[in-house]
Amino acid sequence: MIVALLNQKGGVGKTTLALHLSGSWARRGKRIILIDADLQGLALDWSQQRAKEGLPRLFGVIDLSRDTLHREAPEIAKDVDQVVIDGPPRVAALLRSAPLASDLALVPAQPSPFDGWASGKMLKLIDEARIFRPDLVGRFVLNRCPARTIIVRETAQALAAHEPPVLSARIGQRVVFADAARSGRLADETSQGAAAAREIAALAAEVGGLAR
């Protein structure tokens, strides 16, 4: 199964979610490969930092930031339980290749109307990919949600009747994610990461249910 985090808009937390979903599934005994399809290579940087810190390897991270992604990712998926793609930014060929490579496309968005509008191009590309991948599933995932704000609830309600629908699990705006990333760690490997870890576990369970 290939799960991709896709949005042409920067700053929505694709890499953070890709790393933490990979880690959550790996801790449950799954064989995971994370494909870094972002030319910035942030997932690769995280993996290298983790190695420098002497931390155990949880999953493999490979660079595949090219428009042959849709042909190469399925071959990689044959040898593991799950492939996670950290999707590309505004690179036209890569943006088209990524949903074609995927079984499940997750579109991270912050709880703001602007993020919903900015995701329009990505949703169009997912629809186009369904011509060749009719079973491709798409979902919004609300990320970097401020605590106890009306806009989170209103955004979730607005997306409830949207296509693609929004997942129930939401990820909060937490400094621990940035702190963990700088040291090559995941949130559950830090002393302040318990709440973040619970949110990621809920997201991984929900996404895992779709991926079966």
Count of domains: 1
Could you give a short account of the major beta sheet? Answer: 6 strands, parallel
Per CATH, the class reads: Alpha Beta
Contiguous low-pLDDT stretches (5 residues minimum) are none
- The gross shape turns out to be globular
- Number of separate helices: 9
Elements, N to C (H/E)? EHEHEHEHEHHEHHH
Proper CATH architecture: 3-Layer(aba) Sandwich
The whole-number mean of residue pLDDT values reads 87
Termini separation? 8 Å
In CATH, the homologous superfamily goes by the name: P-loop containing nucleotide triphosphate hydrolases
Q: Helices and strands: which structural class?
A: alpha/beta
Spatial order of strands in the largest sheet: 3-2-4-1-5-6
Query: Compute the gyration radius: what is it?
Result: 16 Å
Strand content: 5-15%
Description:
The radius of gyration is 16 Å and the shape is globular. The longest helix is centred in the C-terminal third of the chain and has 17 residues, at 194-210. The chain is 45% helix and 14% strand. β2, α2 (42-52) and β3 (60-63) form a beta-alpha-beta unit. It has a single domain (2-210), classed as P-loop containing nucleotide triphosphate hydrolases (Rossmann fold, 3-Layer(aba) Sandwich), CATH 3.40.50. It has helices at 14-27, 42-52, 69-77, 92-100, 113-118, 120-129, 150-160, 175-182, 194-210; strands spanning 2-5, 32-36, 60-63, 82-86, 104-109, 137-142. It has a 6-stranded parallel beta sheet, with helices on both faces. It is built from 9 helices and 6 strands; from the N terminus they run βαβαβαβαβααβααα. α1 crosses α9 and α4 (92-100) packs across α6. With 212 residues, the chain is of the alpha/beta class.
